[in-house]
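Notebook B, p. 112. Complex prediction, attempt 2.
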Amino acid sequence: MMPDQGSHLARRVLAVDLRLGAGLAVIVGLLIVGTAGPLVVGSAGLRLGGAPYAQPPTAAHLLGTDTTGRDVLTLMVHGTIPTLMIGLLAGGVGTVIGVVLGLVSGYVRGPVDTVIRGAADVAVTIPALAILVVLTALLQTQSIELMAVIIGLLAWPYSTRAIRAQTLSLRERGFVTIAVLSGRNSLETMFLEILPNLLPYVVASFVGAVSGAIVAAVGLQLLGLGPITTPTMGLTLQYAFQYGAVARGMWWWWGPPTLFLILLFGGLFLISSALDRYLNPRLRGVGAS
Amino acid sequence: MTDPVSGPTGAPPLLELDHVRKSFSSGVGRRESVVAVDDVTLALPSERPVIAAIAGESGSGKSTLGHLALGLLSPTEGRLRFRGQTVGDLIRTDGLEFRRQVQAIFQDPADVFNPFYRVDHVFAMLGRFRLAASAGEGREQVRSALRAVGLDPDRTLGRYAHELSGGQAQRLMIARVLLLKPRLIVADEPVSMVDASMRVAILDAMVELKDKLGVSILYITHDLATAYRVSDEIFILHRGRIVERGSTRAVIASPVDPYTRQLIASVPEPDPDIRWGGPPDDSPNGTPDGPGVALSQPAAVR
Amino acid sequence: MITELPASERPGSVGATVLTVEDLRVSYERRDDRLVAVDGLSFGVAPGEVLGLVGESGSGKSTAAMAILRLVRPPGRIERGRVTLGGVDLLTADPAALRRIRWREVALIPQGSMNSLNPVMRAGDQIADAITAHEGRGDGATVRQRVATLLDSVRLGADVAHRYPHELSGGMRQRVCIAMATALDPRLVIADEPTSALDVVTQRAVAETLLDATHRLRASMILIGHDLALQAQMVDRLAVMRRGRLVEIGPVRAVFHRPVHPYTRILLTAVPSIRDPDGKRRKAWVAGQGDDSARCFLGAACVQDRATAAEARPLMHDVGEGHLVACPIGEGDHASLWTAAHD
């Protein structure tokens, strides 16, 4: 049986689980860097030719400059939010679609369930990256948001399957019957009775979707696809590789974005593994009731 | 044997099952099917409140019968009527009123609460029934219903379900039912998961519901002793069929059907001087469901 | 006379006990507090007797069973106590001795065991497993023969050995568990709610099989449950537990017909009966036991100083012929229990 939810939940979990706390700290830290950073460093460093080319880190340019004279630190700081945003937006779109479909499919059953489940099972086998490559090549948009939405649209099957499974199990519970006997219709029952109990799974789904979306976005950008007007981490990495940063030993150019991504994925992993522990009571070491 | 609970002509029966059959299909292409309720016909009168027990073992179909009466399932064959109208139609045309008139108390008092909300949620959901003119009046109604079942509103409201004991939770659900004042309650094993010391209080509360509010109760149980204590009429269910029916005292005092007799003989008496009576079970593999046992066939009773 | 041990341990009693439990205390560490599940439990089991251990949820009866076999896992902890079987203290025995004793001297049929059978192993193989695990690999044919004999002793056909658990009914699965428990001729069988998930008809069959199997082995049994009616049918002596403590213990007729402790009386009057639906018979047992709430219900049997009683561990008072009752003064709700029992 799920323990009580609500604000007590957040406080208790944070206090008790170091992993969740650490993961959240990393993500929040990155968010702070991304929000406050641009104000601190300004956008002068983004101009092409604004500084000596390909310089290693100095006092003036803490992370050096790239081959077009842009300050790497400025690039990093300005690229943080867009990178995170792609993940959050795509993850959000994918999770919302996935949760709604999974909830409806699991609760209503019947032909609707057969269709949605079939679609999800098929969609999962299609390599999303291949579709994304084709779509972004065709659309050639410069909008980060649009790219994020497209990625999100392809992320739904995973959430759908997970949420559907949980819904199937929850709908057999007595409180769902009581809701029906209290005059609740299907929509109210799904969203007001079942969904609140799915929140941990929704969050876990979301974290997974965010990770997957960032992988997809970085992947697309490394292939040279996607918007080039915003200095996301993927784009910076792509330029770095394209202009031979590795061969030229310009570690200050390809290093920081890589480190950023490692930190980001690490934080997301900590959060999702902490959630795993929370969702699976047997791993929690709870005392006898 | 005529059905003693079908009333005289006039008002239609409160609840009427007419050759109801419910089967569940499973397997690929829906080929295998399990018959949970097999040709059941019974009726509860509407002119006087009655507690009718549906007594059967697990697998007898009694819970399915309860779900059918609540309109949560529809019969595969036959008709189910509440006050003369088909339950299916009632739900479609005036679902809210049907829900108000037919309520339930379930077996597991912990399972009927949504763990995300406090127990007040169960009362909040009743808002659509417009039982009170204002929020204040509604709150007062809830408090007095809780007091009527022996609960202290200040120590019950605002809590989560896991903070209440089984007996308290079950009484809270009775308070909920009290607010709606239904005509019929389906009570599916309401005391089997409650501690022994609380059972009597809950059973007495059910009898009070009948006596003071005129509510009829369909009491579904496997425990013949509690059925005897609270019910006026009894239907013995075995493998989806009613094998014996009649006034509870009469049926338990002088059972006719072999299955009923075996059932009664197997009920342990809380008295060390009265040990299990009746013929012991000599069937192969020691179960009444073993192959070739005469007792497992339903007797030819309607 | 005040005693902490049951009648069977007192001088002059017939024979020694098979099992003696002394001052057993088990607690669970939870996040915020420590829950004492078993609090100073003491009793003995005589050879060949069936002792019933009855209590509601939270009484500690199942924990006590696990503790006797030292099967309590963290966050549970056996804080103190002695469990003596055949001269060996199970709580301090070394692992090798414990292994020898478990299953061969004491067998456990845990709660829900019929649903814990290995779903991918045939029933006969699981029984054989129980035998070879504790006796070492034997000759295959001999083990198979023993399995067949065991199945017969629990009134199951030999064909059951080849079936998988899901092919057997609940009652049959439970008998397989009984066969496993009795496989090595233990001196004591502990059965925890052996029939609670079964139909009333199957329950009687399985209960009678269990008694039969135990009597055939001349073993003793501790039958743990919450159903007083079932206990009345099966046990020789009855022990009533509440919140980790023993409140009353004695010959089953004495406890049923002359219950002393208010909690026992509440339990007894709460059990419905089809042969005594208004509880008239039981009310007669409960009445006439003294209704002066100003004094302790123990009346003349109480020789304890009230002041010291409050700190004492549950001291048992002898009300005659092996019938012992706990002094409830140490329990905070003494007064309300009393009122409830006499309403």
